[in-house]
Fold this sequence. Notes:
It is built from 4 helices and 25 strands. It has helices spanning 165-170, 189-199, 208-214, 260-271; strands at 14-15, 27-28, 31-35, 39-42, 54-57, 61-68, 71-76, 82-86, 90-91, 98-100, 104-108, 117-122, 126-127, 131-135, 138-142, 148-150, 154-156, 182-183, 186-187, 217-218, 229-232, 235-239, 244-249, 254-259, 276-279.
Amino acid sequence: MLDRRLNAFRPDLADIALKGQVEADRFVTPQPAMITQPVVPLRPKPDLSMGIDTELLMGEEVRVFERKNGWAWVQAVDDGYVGYLLEETLGAVAIATHLVTVPRSFVYSGPDLRFPTRMALSMGSRLTIEGEAETRGTRYLLMPDGGALVSRHIRPIAEPPAPDYVAVAALFLETPYLWGGKSGFGIDCSGLVQLAMRMAGRKAPRDSDMQASGLGVPVERAELRRGDLVFWKGHVAIMEDETTMIHANGNTMSVARETLEAAIERIGWLYGTPTGYRRPVAET
């Protein structure tokens, strides 16, 4: 059976790509759009009282299947996740040139850190940059609407990605835990894996069960090394070395560093022992 998280189908409407695989009253060709706000929740239903499944960041592209009553039913281009978001958060697709590379950064109203800020962006946000300026020794890159970011906080998308996704994950230490979160303002366990790996130029599924079943290759506990993943039912952690891991967790309600032994003992009474260990394999 098709996973509804990754396939857009309902009894009344479905993705044209699924014709012949699912039944629906109508099949549609999705239309392209782009996220235009810093962090946008993606929900399982068009209802603000529903919890979030994941988040989309500024500049991410989506496929839109329906716009109705202020909501849009979409599928994220990056990881294929399907859900509902507020239609007002969408805009026309623009060519992104740069990527935010620090956990959080401000967009100023002009090239001066004393100017008012317009918004804060998360690592992974994609931007169009059309100019640059320097004020009192600090270099800024300029967006088409005049917004300015400190140049050290972003890099051209065309430049090589981060060499070590574990080092990227470590930048999020003390970031608040947020169920469904995928940003520098709040993040969950699988969101941390996905975002850190994306910054290193590698793809990862969104949810921990998807990562546990299809990300990389299985390894034994005795083989664990930096960059390997440890899975529990509904949870994932990143090994920083052979004994220490980094994970976004509900115990500290933050991204924290913990030894594997301590985590196994602490988690075991409630969720059991780890269900598996995997080594992400770099794409060739």
